[in-house]
Amino acid sequence: MRGPLNRIFATTGSMKTQMKIASRYAYAALRHGTPKKWWNAYKVWRARARGDITVDGFPFVLKIESTNICNLECPFCLDRDRSQFKGEGMRGFGRMKADFFKRVIDQLGPYAFNVNMYGSGEPLLFPEAYEMMRYAADKNVGVRISSNLSMRDFDDAMAEKVVTSGIEHLIVSCHGASQETYEKYMVGGNFERVTKNMRKLAEAKKRLGRKLPFIDWQFLLFRHNQHEVKTAKAMAKDIGVDFVRFIYPNIPPEFKEEWKPRAEGEASDYQPVPNAPANAAANGSANGAAAPKAPAPAAAAPAPAASKKLPRINVESCSWPYYSIYFNWDGGILPCCDGTTKPSYDLGKFSETTNINDIWNGPDYQLVRRYANFEVAPQDMDARYTCASCLKPLAPFLIKQKGLPLDPEIEKKVDHALAHAKQAFKPAAVAAKT
Q1: Which of 23, 95, 328, 383 is most buried (CB neighbours < 10 A)?
Q2: In 269-376, which ranges are continuous DSSP H helix?
Q3: Paired sense of beta strands 324-327 and 332-334, if any
Q4: Residues contacting 388, CB < 8 A, separation 6+
Q5: Which pLDDT score, from 0 to 100, does residue 10 have?
Q6: pLDDT-based confidence at 352, cuts 50/70/90?
Q7: CB–CB of 411/400 below 8 Å?
């Protein structure tokens, strides 16, 4: 069953699962909230509600990639090919310097409830990550990281270092309950090593009398591992992690036939996951971040017959250009975690002399907020921005194209954008973007 918060957390699961995830965000907001931060959050929320393209507040969830270097080769990560990072015009691999991270926190920390210190790499590979985490924690910003935890030298001392680093929420990506299923996706990883490292962390927390970090085992569900749900739950309890959650990731089209989990009732060699939705794989990315790429639209469908009146569809605007900001390791800024491979997608670059407001309310950010608010027709969207090929800003236009009824306010925006479009609306033009 899909919980009502699925859209926010990019997770398909029960209401219990959704509330567990929500509690982590609520904990950070309550623990680190100040009058200044709450007032800022209200101003940002108000700007989004009104559809403003300039914001008189700052993002309150920071996403900072300390490195995009990783010890694994997961097949769907970074557009399915990490080697492309090294090509001409690509971002390349690297590590953010601690002093650079501190400058970001100095400017945005007074407004932020938490920082997600992960992106396309493994944040615990390098020692400067611990200095960064401690700095953010000491500045009253909650720290969350996602790690594959498949490090060889993770001994008891390292486990205690993690526990005392200031991390509040540690997501452990471990997508299987046996080496056979785990290594199909997490190529180069060692399942036994990961479970031992999780156990070391749980034991270190007990030994030091610490309740944090909250250890969250994240398990992506695929066709080859969906029969291991019960096994994973039992293992999580035995290891001592705080929670295990099962996520249906966004699977690239060319992999769906092989990887997409089977819905209940479908013939399978594996035990089906109870109540799995038929299209479970299309529910956001594994790290809860950006919406999936938009499919090429089909030819316009005739409007539904009057005798079959359908409810009007309300499409929510994207919250990323308002609530969050993404820093690549080299200082390149994006509205979300999509488009990290190419610097040409960046909306600006943070440096020693940068005033973040110059980027946050600059012309590029203003334009993507117009995209997010359905003010620009798909054929007029600039492909330089990753938003131009994202499902979120294109959704109401595709819905209208199919002849389905939209919420009156959304339909008004769509009609206005199409009426003032510089180019004619052509399905092929949208398909080319996606």
Answers
A1: 328
A2: 320-323, 356-360, 363-372
A3: antiparallel
A4: 371, 378, 381, 382, 433
A5: 45
A6: confident
A7: yes
